[in-house]
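Thread title: Can someone regenerate the structure for this chain?

I was given the following input by a collaborator and told the matching C-alpha coordinates would be attached. They weren't. Posting the sequence so someone can regenerate them.
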Amino acid sequence: MSQRVRVREIGRVALGVFLIGAGLLHLTLWRQAFQAQVPPWVPLEKDFVVLASGVVEIVLGVAIIVLRGRLRLAIGWIVGAYFVAIFPGNISQLVESIETQGVEGSVQWIVRLFFQPLLVAWALWSTGAFKAAVAWIRARR
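Best answer:
Regenerated them for you:
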Protein backbone atom coordinates (compact mmCIF):
# COMPACT_ATOMS: atom_id res chain seq x y z
CA MET A 1 0.00 0.00 0.00
CA SER A 2 1.49 3.33 -1.04
CA GLN A 3 1.86 6.26 1.33
CA ARG A 4 -0.80 8.19 -0.61
CA VAL A 5 -3.32 5.34 -0.32
CA ARG A 6 -2.53 4.97 3.40
CA VAL A 7 -3.19 8.67 4.00
CA ARG A 8 -6.49 8.42 2.10
CA GLU A 9 -7.50 5.38 4.19
CA ILE A 10 -6.71 7.23 7.43
CA GLY A 11 -8.72 10.21 6.17
CA ARG A 12 -11.67 7.97 5.30
CA VAL A 13 -11.71 6.26 8.70
CA ALA A 14 -11.28 9.61 10.46
CA LEU A 15 -14.28 11.00 8.54
CA GLY A 16 -16.31 7.94 9.52
CA VAL A 17 -15.40 8.40 13.18
CA PHE A 18 -16.25 12.12 12.90
CA LEU A 19 -19.69 11.29 11.46
CA ILE A 20 -20.39 8.63 14.09
CA GLY A 21 -19.37 11.04 16.85
CA ALA A 22 -21.52 13.85 15.43
CA GLY A 23 -24.45 11.45 15.12
CA LEU A 24 -24.09 10.34 18.72
CA LEU A 25 -24.01 13.99 19.84
CA HIS A 26 -27.28 14.53 17.94
CA LEU A 27 -28.85 11.75 19.97
CA THR A 28 -27.40 12.67 23.35
CA LEU A 29 -25.40 15.60 24.75
CA TRP A 30 -26.03 18.25 22.08
CA ARG A 31 -29.58 17.28 21.15
CA GLN A 32 -31.10 20.60 22.24
CA ALA A 33 -28.27 22.60 20.67
CA PHE A 34 -28.89 20.86 17.34
CA GLN A 35 -32.63 21.53 17.65
CA ALA A 36 -31.86 25.25 17.74
CA GLN A 37 -30.01 24.88 14.43
CA VAL A 38 -32.98 23.43 12.53
CA PRO A 39 -34.15 26.21 10.20
CA PRO A 40 -37.63 27.58 10.94
CA TRP A 41 -38.78 26.76 7.40
CA VAL A 42 -38.25 22.99 7.82
CA PRO A 43 -41.80 21.54 8.00
CA LEU A 44 -40.92 18.81 10.50
CA GLU A 45 -40.66 18.70 14.27
CA LYS A 46 -37.18 19.88 15.27
CA ASP A 47 -36.52 16.94 17.58
CA PHE A 48 -37.41 14.50 14.78
CA VAL A 49 -34.99 16.27 12.40
CA VAL A 50 -32.19 16.12 14.97
CA LEU A 51 -32.78 12.47 15.83
CA ALA A 52 -33.15 11.43 12.18
CA SER A 53 -30.02 13.32 11.12
CA GLY A 54 -28.13 11.75 14.03
CA VAL A 55 -29.10 8.26 12.90
CA VAL A 56 -28.21 9.15 9.29
CA GLU A 57 -24.78 10.40 10.36
CA ILE A 58 -24.09 7.23 12.34
CA VAL A 59 -25.13 5.03 9.40
CA LEU A 60 -23.06 7.09 6.97
CA GLY A 61 -20.07 6.99 9.32
CA VAL A 62 -20.20 3.22 9.63
CA ALA A 63 -20.76 2.82 5.89
CA ILE A 64 -17.83 5.02 4.93
CA ILE A 65 -15.58 2.90 7.16
CA VAL A 66 -16.72 -0.59 6.15
CA LEU A 67 -17.82 -0.39 2.49
CA ARG A 68 -15.41 -1.37 -0.26
CA GLY A 69 -15.18 -1.09 -4.04
CA ARG A 70 -17.97 0.63 -5.94
CA LEU A 71 -20.07 0.86 -2.78
CA ARG A 72 -17.33 2.96 -1.20
CA LEU A 73 -17.36 5.28 -4.20
CA ALA A 74 -21.14 5.58 -3.93
CA ILE A 75 -21.05 6.30 -0.20
CA GLY A 76 -18.47 9.02 -0.88
CA TRP A 77 -20.97 10.77 -3.16
CA ILE A 78 -23.81 10.18 -0.70
CA VAL A 79 -21.84 11.65 2.22
CA GLY A 80 -20.81 14.61 0.07
CA ALA A 81 -24.45 15.16 -0.89
CA TYR A 82 -25.46 14.95 2.78
CA PHE A 83 -23.02 17.72 3.64
CA VAL A 84 -24.48 19.83 0.83
CA ALA A 85 -28.03 19.07 2.04
CA ILE A 86 -27.36 20.36 5.57
CA PHE A 87 -25.62 23.51 4.31
CA PRO A 88 -28.86 25.57 4.21
CA GLY A 89 -29.21 24.93 7.95
CA ASN A 90 -25.81 26.51 8.51
CA ILE A 91 -26.80 29.50 6.40
CA SER A 92 -30.06 29.79 8.34
CA GLN A 93 -28.13 29.79 11.60
CA LEU A 94 -26.05 32.73 10.36
CA VAL A 95 -29.02 34.67 8.95
CA GLU A 96 -31.20 34.05 12.01
CA SER A 97 -28.27 34.71 14.42
CA ILE A 98 -28.94 31.48 16.30
CA GLU A 99 -26.39 30.89 19.04
CA THR A 100 -25.91 27.28 20.11
CA GLN A 101 -23.38 25.25 22.02
CA GLY A 102 -20.03 25.52 20.28
CA VAL A 103 -21.13 28.11 17.70
CA GLU A 104 -21.62 31.61 19.05
CA GLY A 105 -21.24 34.76 17.01
CA SER A 106 -21.08 35.63 13.34
CA VAL A 107 -17.35 34.91 12.92
CA GLN A 108 -17.82 31.30 14.02
CA TRP A 109 -20.87 30.93 11.78
CA ILE A 110 -18.93 32.21 8.77
CA VAL A 111 -15.99 29.89 9.54
CA ARG A 112 -18.45 27.03 9.78
CA LEU A 113 -19.89 27.93 6.35
CA PHE A 114 -16.44 27.76 4.78
CA PHE A 115 -15.72 24.45 6.51
CA GLN A 116 -18.73 22.75 4.88
CA PRO A 117 -17.19 22.55 1.36
CA LEU A 118 -14.08 21.05 2.95
CA LEU A 119 -16.26 18.27 4.39
CA VAL A 120 -17.64 17.59 0.90
CA ALA A 121 -14.10 17.47 -0.50
CA TRP A 122 -12.98 15.21 2.38
CA ALA A 123 -15.77 12.73 1.61
CA LEU A 124 -15.02 12.64 -2.12
CA TRP A 125 -11.24 12.45 -1.69
CA SER A 126 -11.09 9.91 1.14
CA THR A 127 -13.39 7.42 -0.59
CA GLY A 128 -11.72 7.79 -3.99
CA ALA A 129 -15.03 8.98 -5.44
CA PHE A 130 -13.56 12.11 -7.00
CA LYS A 131 -10.58 10.23 -8.45
CA ALA A 132 -12.91 7.60 -9.94
CA ALA A 133 -15.14 10.27 -11.46
CA VAL A 134 -12.16 11.98 -13.09
CA ALA A 135 -10.93 8.63 -14.47
CA TRP A 136 -14.42 7.84 -15.79
CA ILE A 137 -14.63 11.23 -17.54
CA ARG A 138 -11.16 10.82 -19.06
CA ALA A 139 -12.05 7.34 -20.33
CA ARG A 140 -15.10 8.75 -22.13
CA ARG A 141 -13.07 11.24 -24.14
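Helices lie at 3-27, 31-37, 46-66, 69-85, 87-95, 106-126, 129-139.
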